[in-house]
Amino acid sequence: MSHDQQMFFIKTRQMKLFKILTSRVKSINKSVLNPARIIVLFFLCLGSFYSSAQTPEQITAEAKSRGIASRAAAINELAKNGITVNQAREMASLKGMDFDAFLDDYLASLSGGSTGVTQATSTSAGENPTTITIIEENSVVEPESTPVVTSSDPSYFGYSIFDNNPFGDKAYLVGNIDEGYLLAPGDELRINVFGDNNLQQVSKIDLNGNISFPGLGVFQAAGSSYATLKDRLKIFLGRFYSGLLSSPQRSFMDVSLTQIRPVKITILGQVNTPGPHLVNGLATVLNALYASGGVKTSGSLRDIKVYRGNKLLRSFDLYDFITQGKIDQDIRLANNDIIFVGPRLSSVTLSGAVKQSGIYELKPQENTSDLFRFSGGLPPGATLGAVNISRITPFEGRSQEQLFDRFLTTVDLTQNKSFALIDGDKVSVQGILDRERSIVTLQGSVNKPGSYSLQTYKDLKGLIQDAGMGLLENTYMNKVDLYRRDELGNLSFKTYNLQSVLEGDFNVALNDRDRVVVFSEAAVQGEKKISITGFVPRPNELFWAQDLNLFDVIFSATSFEELEYQSKVLTSRVDIRRFDPQSGQYRILTYSLDNLPELKTTALEPRDQVVLYTRGVSQDTELSVSVLGSVKSAGSKPLAVDMLVEDALLAAGGFSEFADKSRVEVFRRSNDALTGKYSDYTQYEVDLDYMLGKTRSPKNPFVLENYDIIIARTPKDAELTPTVSISGEVIYPGSLVLQNSKTTVEDLIRESGGLTEFGYLPGSYLVRQGKPLAADLKSKSNKVTLLPGDQMVIISEKEPVITTGNVKAPTTFKWLKNRRAKYYIRNSGGTGERPEDKFVVYPSGKTKSIGWFKNPRVMPGSQLVVTQRPEKVQKEGGAFIDKFIQVFSIATGALTTLILATRL
User: 3-state class of 218 per DSSP?
Assistant: First the structure.
């Protein structure tokens, strides 16, 4: 059975099931029809559920297992099985129930909350209460679709309008309904009559185009416009409700559209989600493009075609909408319309001094004028005199020898504003020169420096006084500079006396692009500062003042009143280094900090340098001792008055954990060039009671001096953990702690539980400091003593013997107790060509050679190695001899033949 036949068979069974369900629903009492049962009947319409689901609970579970958790999923499942939404709605409406409302109830039961749809009941005459969905008047809702999120390439012009999709995350709202909308089957109306009579009814136009009024008849609604429907419906209902047509009117009628019929269209080509789409009856081409996720950058925005009845209805240019907001040509879509978005017509790149750079799509015959119109025109800073256009060489103009496929054309668009463009062109608009005319610039020591108009300020005096708002304080009055550049760009320079210019002794006229510089005294003469350096918290510079004296500078830059500072500063001397303009050098003036009256009367001059000194120039002011070795904080420590050895140890944090706390070594500097002696050595007994505060002084106090060195030591191996390890064929391999320095190999094996049945002591070995120890362990009574860190390896008799190297068949053998080395080589096929050395490598790394009279024992885990002698390289002389012998042999053979021939 073919695929089409299978689909036809499935759809036939679905329609039969639909008829059976319809007949059963008619026979069911309305009182037992609850929302859950209607949902069950709805999901029964999905096709294949009836084969496995027998109860409402099973059917609901089956629907959940198929992932039907949204309105869109339910509609898609119906469509897969050949059932339309209208057919499902008609089945539910047979018993006065609303399909959409109960579908919302089902979805709410999945999420545990409300779907956000307001429900109410209508009470039309002759009908039971029916649940309906209240929708805002004069608005329409399209069936849900999966949101399409797009992000276009910003370099392509126009496509970004689809990035902010207004229909991507909510119902397809179109807006108010115009009066010319033509009604058709599927549209839903809400009709209210109020006044002397009352009627409230929500009705959907059936497939025949009618609206049914229970007890009144049917009304033909399809084909009427929304405007004419109201008038025709008023006449129809006026026959049954008095006051609608009377004058004065006592009954009134209101008609509104609550739901618009869906329209199926197909969108093909370069869109993000091509294929069939459901939109409502008010949708336009632009609405449909939004519903499809927008046009790809590979698609055209200039030529979007709409086909109706297999004929081209209209082509649309979205640039009119994007650049001007014009949508006059947009049409309302009808059922089975096809929208086709073809590939881009062209790609023209615009850059430079433009309002909106990017890649534009131009139609044939469009030119630079159209391109600039699409980009919003040109900014004031653009120039049309030299527009560069990079163009690809046409196919017919290319050749294999051609190295460049683009050529540049510069166009004067002031002469030809409509230069034709083709696909691939790159248009670059240059900007104007950022240069100004009729400008003068004022810089330097004025209140308001800047650029000013030459038309307003035509001379130097007016520029400084009026434009610059006068001079700053400390302006240098003997100089003002004028820089001038002529039309050829040549720079000239003139200087004037600023005081004379401002007093009007002469007038200096300004030219275009002149630059005027007014100087401060600091710029010309240098800033008037003094400095203080030397023994100060930090070197500092101070601005000079008229009455500034030496005392003020010292006491403002130092902490002279602090006792620590006074104890270290050299009070007997303070220097002033004063600049001598005659010699160009500094002169040193000396004062004393002890003579305060003199300091207060010593005036300073600009550029003076005040220098303070420390007592360290003649004596050591930073006394210290060093505590080294096994202490917690080793290093240099400040020396205190009458500081004892224990005090220094405390300053170093005390002894470390394994240090010898009973004694330390003290070294005191004692340089003697004659005897070569560097220091005196003293071994000092430490008084721990004094360190712990149990006594007021140590038993034998040792007072420290400057540069003394205290060293605390740790006994040998005090920090080591005396452990050894044993591995291999023992009962308890692992690490053991040495109890004393006389522990032997025999003791270690015994403490490890002894050897296993495969332990082979003769081949075992001891590793010390990472290397095998040359010791014979074959006797269990071995008395080799162990050291901390030793590693003992017990070899297993199961370890194989391996032959390798220059043997004919390298092999792995089971170790045999009484077999020696040559046995294994012989059973490996013997040695190969040019054998050289043969030896046994034992597990410990020890080797023994094999020779004519040497056939050593082999232990488990051994390797037998045979090396190969390198092939002898023949020298040039040897080659000559071989050649000579070859020639001599031939000659000898020929001579022999000749002799035999003559004798015969």
Answer: strand
Inside any domain, residue 317: yes
d(CA 218, CA 237): 11
The DSSP result for 790-849, as a single string, is: -EEEEEETT--EEEEESBSS--EE---TT-BHHHHHHTTT-B-SSEEEEEEE-TTS-EEE
Same domain, 328 and 353: no
Q: Among 333-342, 765-774, 820-829, 881-890, which stretch is predicted with the lowest mean pLDDT?
A: 881-890
Helices 85-93 and 99-111: crossing angle in degrees, nearest 10, is 100
* DSSP alpha helix (H) spans, 545-595: 550-557, 563-568
Domain end: 796, 815, 848, which one? 796
Tally the domains of the chain: 9
112 and 19, same structural domain? yes
Do residues 550 and 501 touch, judged by C-beta distance below 8 A? Answer: no
Residue 154 lies in a domain: no
| Nearest in space to 392 (alpha carbons), one of 405, 382, 379 | 405
Q: Locate 516 and state its tokens.
A: 């005027």
Angle at which helix 71-80 crosses helix 85-93, to 10 degrees, equals 100
Residue 12 and residue 92 in one domain: yes
Which residue type, as a one-letter code, is found at position 819? R
Cβ-count burial 723-761 (b if 16+ within 10 Å, e if not): ebbbebbbeebeebebeeeebebebbbebbeebeeebbb
Residue with tokens 């539910």: 92
The SS3 of residue 468 is coil
Q: How far apart are CA 495 and CA 354, in angstroms?
A: 45
More confident residue, 291 or 452: 452
- 151 in a domain, yes or no? no
For 198-252, the pLDDT digits (tens) are 888 998 888 888 999 888 889 998 888 888 888 889 889 888 888 888 888 898 9
8 shares its domain with 95: yes
Q: What is the CATH number of the domain that holds 671?
A: 3.10.560.10
Q: Is residue 337 located within the same domain as residue 471? A: no
427: CB partners within 8 A, 6+ apart: 348, 349, 350, 351, 352, 368, 371, 387, 388, 389, 421
CATH number, position 552: 3.10.560
Length of the chain: 904
The model's pTM is: 0.41
User: Residue 517 pLDDT more than 80?
Assistant: yes
Residue 757: both structure tokens together:
């049945």
Q: Based on the fold, state whether residues 573 and 663 are members of the same structural domain.
A: no
Q: Which of 651, 646, 659 is nearest to 634 (CA)?
A: 651
CB of 204 closer than 8 Å to CB of 188 = yes
Instruction: Specify the DSSP element, H or E, that contains 902.
Output: helix 876-903
Do the beta carbons of residue 231 and residue 247 sit within 8 Å? no
Does one domain contain both 569 and 520?
no
Which distant-in-sequence residues (6+ apart) come within 8 Å of 862 by Cβ? 763, 801, 802, 815, 840, 841, 842, 843
Residue type, 666: V
Taking the CA atoms of 659, 665, 669 and 672 in sequence, report the sign of the dihedral they define: negative
- Residue at which a domain ends, from 215, 237, 259: 259
Q: Is residue 546 part of a domain?
A: yes
pLDDT in tens, 571-590: 888 999 998 888 888 899 99
Q: List the Cα angle 67/69/70 in 5-degree steps.
A: 130
Close Cβ partners of 546 (under 8 Å, ≥ 6 residues apart): none
Domain that holds residue 863: 801-868
At 435, list the tokens: 């240069």
Indicate if 306 and 334 belong to the same structural domain. Answer: yes
Half-sphere exposure of 683 (CA within 13 A, CB side): 5
Q: What is each CA distance from 531 to 272, 554, 572, 698, 889, in whole angstroms? A: 75, 10, 20, 52, 107
* Alpha carbons 500 and 295: distance in angstroms, whole number: 75
